[in-house]
Amino acid sequence: MSEDWGNGFFDELNKDREAKVRSGQQVNNGGNMKIHFTLEEMKNIIEKNRADERERCIGGYKEIIELYAGMEGFVPETAPEGYQKRIIEQMYEAAINAIKAEGG
């Protein structure tokens, strides 16, 4: 998962903080605020974050495919360029396979 996954996760947890305070579900433990969620609420939050992460990944894969398509007509003239083209083709294939695996 991306490095910023945790930020969105905690933002989602704290989104309805005031409602939790009013309903008495929030406790003050020595100045450390803790919010209590049901298991179902936690599952929903985690599933939403997974779906968001999946969409970001598929967007990245599609961008790789578009960049590869922009290389059409590129003819390597040196060994390093040939190697570079081969690596880029492997990245393209990996992106295609990832999208197929995700059903996108």
SSE order and pairing:
Blueprint: H1 5-14, H2 17-22, E1 26-29, E2 32-35, H3 39-69, H4 79-102
Antiparallel strand pairs: 1-2
Helix pairs in contact: 1-3, 3-4
Describe this structure in words.
- The chain is 68% helix and 8% strand.
- The protein is rod-shaped, with a radius of gyration of 22 Å.
- The chain has helices at 5-14, 17-22, 39-69, 79-102; strands spanning 26-29, 32-35.
- The protein has 2 domains: 1-37, no CATH class; 53-104.
- Strands 1-2 form a two-stranded antiparallel ribbon.
- By secondary structure, it is mainly α.
- It is built from 4 helices and 2 strands.
- The mean pLDDT is 76.
- α1 runs antiparallel to α3 (39-69) and α3 runs antiparallel to α4 (79-102).
- A hairpin with a 2-residue loop joins β1 (26-29) and β2.
- The two termini are 18 Å apart.
Low-confidence stretches: none
Helix and strand run:
HHEEHH
How many DSSP-defined strands?
2
Taken together, the total number of domains comes to 2
Shape: rod-shaped
Structural class: mainly alpha
Fraction of residues in H or I helices: 55-70%
Strand % is 5-15%
Q: Which radius of gyration do the C-alpha atoms yield? A: 22 Å
What does the average pLDDT come to? Answer: 76
Oligomer: single chain
* Number of H/I helices: 4
Order the strands across the largest sheet as they lie in space.
Answer: 1-2
Query: What is the terminal-to-terminal distance?
Result: 18 Å
Largest sheet: 2 strands, antiparallel
